[in-house]
Amino acid sequence: MSHEGTHAGGNRIEGFAHLQGNDTYNTINEMFGLQGDAEFSGQMINAILNPESWKENTGEVDNWIRTAEGGYKYDGVATLKDEEGNVIKSLKDMGLGKESQIEGALLAILSVDKNDSEKVAAVRHMMEASGLIHSYSENPDDWYWTGVREARSVNLVDIATQHEMAEFANLLTVKKHDLTELNRGTTISFAAIVEMMNEVNMDEASIKKFVYSAYDSAIDFLNFADRGGNLSIATQMLSQYLDPDQLDQVQVNREWYNNALISGVNIDGMFPNAVRDKVGFGMSSGLLKLASSSVENAKFFQEEHTGIDFSRGTGIQTPGGYWEFDHSDNHKAYIRLFGGNLMMRVQHLDPAVLDEIPKGKIYGSSEGAAKIFDFPTKSFGSGTGAHVHIDMTRKMPYSKIYVRQFVDPETLKPDPARLEYRYYYYDSNQKKLEKSGLFARY
Question: Do residue 272 and residue 201 come from a single domain?
């Protein structure tokens, strides 16, 4: 049981478990004056000496974990996951090469330049103050936060604040420690991160980069903070790069978005007097005859529908909240919920009109819908006639990894069994053209 107990406590190396089992076995024999089983003891010794016993079991490898309250919990390696085990940032995403780069991963998560000595020192102090133990060295550049290293069993911050004078000698002794196990479960709180950034006077651009890198958006940043009782300090941080009007828009959007996740989106209300197509999200369109096409020689089209189509409307409105024009691509308009992770694409619009819209233009109202575009009067792009197509994407977990994926515009939820959506172009003889493929998950 002591063997398996080390695994339950987080140990992933069989050698350590065998050592603990052997020690416990010998202790029990001594306590009760028992004669040990030589064969059993020999098996344990052989297991301890077996090099394979000292290889880490990475079947369910541990990671930095982003908590529901927006903190970051140390759990052994650099890769960042959420509490359900979904990968938020891989080593590649963070520009790292080894899972042992614990400090480097945290710098990447917090968008701190590894060459900025002042900010790196502040991050290290925050790690120490949060209770993380590093290897012993007078030079902080040589500190390690994982593996079996020479280290004190607690850091100097803990010694100064939590222990009696009589304990100093033992606590200050430098000896071998498994830092991975010593640090496992220690959490750097949301409040500690914000405090560190305020202390080093993080500039506006760096704060914005941090918010979107660590929490995906300003709205998600506020939601994480709110769950941990830190909404006030999070709002104050956002005010360092958002003006008062923009901050108000983010707060309106947060309320709209959180409600939409529960109650859904009134997509029909976006297209006054329009007729909704019967082919909904995730359905196959069947073979459609094209009235216009952006693909040479294409006469027919078929798709796995990423959204919803409308025809014969009198305008196109926001579904609520404030939306920021991001960019256009021919007849396609890409619009982002301001301060959010949600993207909306409206297709089959007049390219000449879209070309005149400046990046960053805001559409919206705090009290309901606001007009975005006129409804098209003819077919643009590849279509069966004058109509619009709307779809949306969010960054969400799929197969244990966070990726952008299409969501039902009415529920903001994806099809859990599908990530990719296909389209096909055909010539006049209904022969498939090479332009067929997968819709880009913008």
Answer: no
